[in-house]
Amino acid sequence: MLVFGMLKQVVHGTAQSRASGCWRFVLPVRFLGSSPHGIPADANFHSTSFSEAEPPRVLITGGLGQLGVGLANLLRKRFGKDNVILSDIRKPPDHVFHSGPFVYANILDHKNLHETVVNHRISWLFHYSALLSAAGEANISLARDVNITGLHNILDVAAEYNLRLFVPSTIGAFGPTSPQNPAPDLCIQRPRTIYGVSKVHAELMGEYYYYRYGLDFRCLRYPGIISADSQLGGGTTDYAVQIFHAAAKNSTFECNLKASTRLPMMYISDCLRATLEVMEAPAECLSMRTYNINAMSFTPDELAQELQKHVPDFQITYCVDPLRQAIAESWPMTLDDSNARKDWGWKHDFDLPELVATMLSLLGASVRVAQAN
Length: 373
Prior knowledge:
The chain is α/β, with parallel strands linked by helices. It has helices spanning about 70-80, 95, 110-120, 135-140, 140-160, 195-215, 240-250, 270-280, 300-310, 320-330, 340-345, 350-360; strands spanning about 60, 85-90, 100-105, 125, 165, 170, 215-220, 225, 255, 265, 290, 295-300, 315-320.
């Protein structure tokens, strides 16, 4: 049995207002980058509470997925290269291995997790290991093991060693009976995928560990995340990444969702910045453990129209996948993120026009606005 030591005092009240102590200044630093794994455009920090005298020691699990490498790059710029350890159970490509510390970490191996945390003196843990929506439905037993059993191991290790823990959630944590336009932070969820069920489980278990053991658990519900990284993980919103690769090659794209399917989306640099900002937010400013974050919301048809402003010959066709369509229709069309904006100053930088121009530029397309006829 794990012994977690004395319980911390837990503040049950709501977050203070900016006027009462939670106002945070804009950090006058903008990270620029052009790599799809790096910070592809301005990553302006809108808030901070970090003391450079004591940078955290960070571990990222599932680090070779869509978000892990970009997050590691951002955190290394912020805290120093050697303070951020990327991990996975797969062999990293050379450019990832040589960019900073990398270790093997299996979230289903409790002993391995303990050794990694202790040997690297970890104080912050970002837990990204998961099977996504469509991939999870194709292998439910593996999704259950990774998304639920693996989470339990992470929670136990984080509580035992007093870590600050971030676990991402998702629009997939909502279901067909949830409010759809918009979905608030607190509402009926009832997802119908193993991925969504496991994320609701993660949200509730993290909140339970916060109240029961004083674990500093923080969570964001991500919308669909769009990046130039083609290494996708079987998510229902993957079309919104794949379509850019087709447009950059000036080829036709076959979409597996209906043209009118509206879903919330976010560019990766906004997502990664939000993740760091909520982790750096003063504890007294957080009124909840899990927050929605939102940026833009569009349909495949609206995205294709914006792409055609830059690539006039681009065409989209539709061959609907019933499984993915059913999943998408069970999710909200947009998220209410007013609590994140109020409590810790969340603010997105990218709307649809900026997203399209940036993605095409990163993928090497000739970005231009079509002349009106």
